[in-house]
């Protein structure tokens, strides 16, 4: 039972990342009809927004401490972060420690700006082109962005720690009546799941309860009619592209303490996220979220030692097997809409 609960938690953790990326992918496809293979790169850029913000907070200057000397007897030179000068040692250290959560404020405008620039500068020229053309151009853009990140940040992963308050693990076993230490799970992974739930709920609430969201949903259902009503739906769809980019970026920001950012992390999630979208149903936002968590949980259980002893390597292909089974039985996916990508 302890192993089952632990793998379920692992599934929620993986599913959170899959669901957030797939949600952004579906927003773009549902509004613009574009198959965006650069979406994984947006997840990667979000992670490097956290890296950049952390480095900015850690900028320092040299201070000579006359009261301390090195082994040669010279006054010791210390690197003091500017945050200490601006806010004091204690507050400055706390700000640096909370760099990852605070980088959300930095990442949101950056990711929206990148998303709008991508849509206006490149994607809009491929609206009426075949999906194969869209895949090729966005995949090429993803490779370019990946190489740009590699050039500026290097090829090695960059550790970006969580705040000290969330270092360590929560003892679920003790809370559920099991032996102490039988089910422990990292605090930050729980934070990531709760963060994903908040973002997903916020996106759905925005689309469901705001006038802007209602117009966007109407445009997704019947673009021509909305345009005839005098509404600039193209402008709203551009903003939605920026919001989708922000969702992917925030998923990357909060994922940095779980997996140290590297230049190929976007590609690692891209294919899996598209499988999630297809299983959930192209154009279906609830389907993308449902499939993300479902496939994350299935992958986690397939990674159990007991399963791998019987079926070695099944954890590497289980998501694709599930996708095959779902598409054979439900060609439109779990919650797919009729007519989407069926021309």
Shape: globular
In total, how many domains does the architecture comprise? Answer: 1
Count of separate DSSP helical elements: 15
In CATH, the architecture is: Orthogonal Bundle
Number of strands: 4
Give the amount of beta strand, in percent.
Answer: 5-15%
Membrane topology: Multi-pass membrane protein
GO molecular function: transmembrane transporter activity
Subcellular location: Cell membrane
Main location: membrane
Question: What does it look like?
Answer:
By secondary structure, the chain is mainly alpha-helical. The protein has a single domain (2-329), classed as Orthogonal Bundle (ABC transporter involved in vitamin B12 uptake, BtuC). It is built from 15 helices and four strands. It has helices at residues 2-32, 39-57, 82-87, 89-97, 99-121, 131-153, 172-175, 187-209, 211-221, 223-228, 233-255, 265-280, 285-302, 305-310, 314-329; strands at residues 60-69, 75-81, 169-171, 184-186. A hairpin with a 5-residue loop joins strand 1 and strand 2 (75-81). The model has no long low-confidence stretch (mean pLDDT 86). Keywords: Amino-acid transport, Cell membrane, Membrane, Transmembrane, Transmembrane helix, Transport.
Quick rundown:
68% of the residues lie in helices and 7% in strands.
SSE arrangement:
Layout: H1 2-32, H2 39-57, E1 60-69, E2 75-81, H3 82-87, H4 89-97, H5 99-121, H6 131-153, E3 169-171, H7 172-175, E4 184-186, H8 187-209, H9 211-221, H10 223-228, H11 233-255, H12 265-280, H13 285-302, H14 305-310, H15 314-329
Antiparallel strand pairs: 1-2, 3-4
